[in-house]
Amino acid sequence: MKRTVTKAKLIEHLDADLSRELKAILLYMWCHSMAFGIRGHELREILAPEIHDEIKHVQFLADKIIALGGTPRFVVPEFKRPTAIREMLEYALSIEREAVQAYAERVDEASDLGETALQVKLEELITEETEHLELLQRLVKGLSPEQ
Ligand SMILES: [Fe+2]
Ligand SMILES: [Fe+2]
Fold first, then answer.
1. Domain regions of the chain by residue span
2. Which ligand is nearest to the CA of 17?
3. Which ligand number lies closest to the CA of residue 130?
4. How many angstroms does the Cα of residue 37 sit away from the middle of ligand 2?
5. Ligand 2 centre and the CA of 111: distance in Å?
6. Most Cβ neighbours (<10 Å): which of 40, 70, 85, 98?
7. How far apart are the CA of 63 and the centre of ligand 1, in A?
8. Could you read off the pLDDT of 89-125 as tens digits, one per residue?
């Protein structure tokens, strides 16, 4: 089987995934504290379990990087701090889209390296991030033009 990725590259990519998850957690915590009004109240209720999901993703990625022989760096990327509900949702949506795409690439890399358990777990992550993505899409769709 022709390998297109090395184990070191996979570790590096998983570490970048971990950073993106940290960004998602901080963005969601920002939105959770800064979403006001009735819509904001709904958003808070929706984001609370998502924050929990993203924390679990960080834990999984950190443990997996270590299992593969690496060390997670826990680099926190810069992130925007939107104050309008629409901006919050659209920014969150873009991060979830990135996550789905990144994990799809990671599935191929894990498969190339014969890391079957990782591949299966990454497919689960794709399912969870897609659920986040579709929920956010529904919320954006329901916003009135002035929001
Ligand atoms: Fe995540
Ligand atoms: Fe997510």
1. 7-141
2. 1
3. 2
4. 24
5. 22
6. 85
7. 15
8. 999 999 999 999 999 999 999 999 999 999 999 999 9
* Cα 40 to ligand 2 centre (Å): 19
Distance 131 CA to ligand 2 centre (A): 8
**pTM of this structure:** 0.94
Class of domain 7-141: mainly alpha
For residue 95, report the distance from its CA to the centre of ligand 1, in Å. 9
Which residues, by Cβ under 5 Å, contact ligand 2, an ion?
A: 96, 129, 132
Q: What is the DSSP string of the chain?
A: ----S-HHHHHHHHHHHHHHHHHHHHHHHHHHHH--HHHHHHHHHHHHHHHHHHHHHHHHHHHHHHHTT--------------SHHHHHHHHHHHHHHHHHHHHHHHHHHHHTT-HHHHHHHHHHHHHHHHHHHHHHHHHHTS-TT-
Over residues 120-141, the pLDDT tens digits come to: 999 999 999 999 999 999 999 9
Kindly report, residue by residue over 48-74, the tens digit of the pLDDT: 999 999 999 999 999 999 999 999 999
Q: How many residues does the chain have?
A: 147
